[in-house]
Amino acid sequence: MSTVTIVGIAFALAMDAFAASMASGAIIRKNKLRKALLFGTAFGGFQILMPVLGWLSGLTFRERVSGVDHWLSFGLLAVIGGKMIFESFKIENMEDAKPQMTGVVLLGLAVATSIDAFVVGIGFSFLKVSILLPVAVIGIVTFFMSFAGVFLGSKLGDIMGKKVEFLGGLILLIIGLKILLQHLYAAY
Fold first, then answer.
1. What is the DSSP string of the chain?
2. Total domains present in the chain
3. Closest to 151 in 3D by CA, of 11, 17, 15, 28
4. Whole domain around residue 29: which residue ranges?
5. CA dist 188 to 24, 62, 110, 165, Å?
């Protein structure tokens, strides 16, 4: 597998993490650097872990995972996005906004945005591709895109105010719906 192909796959896999980071960054007011590093590490780490797990499982779990992966991603993103939308209506002003970006929420986002990387890992095992270089590239690209996404989202949050939490939740719902529809469409 060529380096160009691996980099292309890495950017494609990192797009959901980038969008989720932007949506979350829009509501982050304090410790932006720390949060950006946390997001980059969480998303990048799961984008490394999931292809390795997919690669290791190969044919064994392919049938089971492919039947529910899109529903799992959609469910996690819909719950988190719906909560953000709901919370956006409760905020009177941005000074009162206390984003609930807990470890559990970040873990849910990291898992939801990396499930497709699991399937890519299964593909790597079918192609008998060594997993080390692809996962390193995928992890690094995802780290930097997620890191940048927090800052870009934060700038949008400063400009748009409380509407951004609503927009961020909507973006997460759209990502979840996109994942669901892609898998359902591919099944037909």
1. --HHHHHHHHHHHHHHHHHHHHHHHTT--S-HHHHHHHHHHHHHHHHHHHHHHHHHHHHHHHHHHHHHHHHHHHHHHHHHHHHHHHHHHH-SSGGG------HHHHHHHHHHHHHHHHHHHHHHHHTT--SHHHHHHHHHHHHHHHHHHHHHHHHHHHHHTTHHHHHHHHHHHHHHHHHHHHHHHHH-
2. 1
3. 28
4. 3-187
5. 34, 18, 28, 35
Query: Can you tell me the distance from the alpha carbon of 132 to that of 85, in angstroms, rounded to the nearest whole number?
Result: 39
Which residue shows structure tokens 């998303």? Answer: 43
CA 121 – CA 125 distance, rounded (Å): 6
CB 133 within 8 A of CB 2: no
Query: What is the spatial distance between Cα 117 and Cα 73, in angstroms, rounded to a whole number?
Result: 12
Print pLDDT tens along the chain (188 aa). Answer: 778 888 888 888 888 888 888 888 877 778 889 999 999 999 999 999 999 998 888 757 656 656 676 676 677 667 777 776 777 776 554 444 445 667 888 888 898 888 878 878 877 777 777 899 999 999 999 999 999 999 988 887 666 656 666 776 777 678 778 878 887 877 66
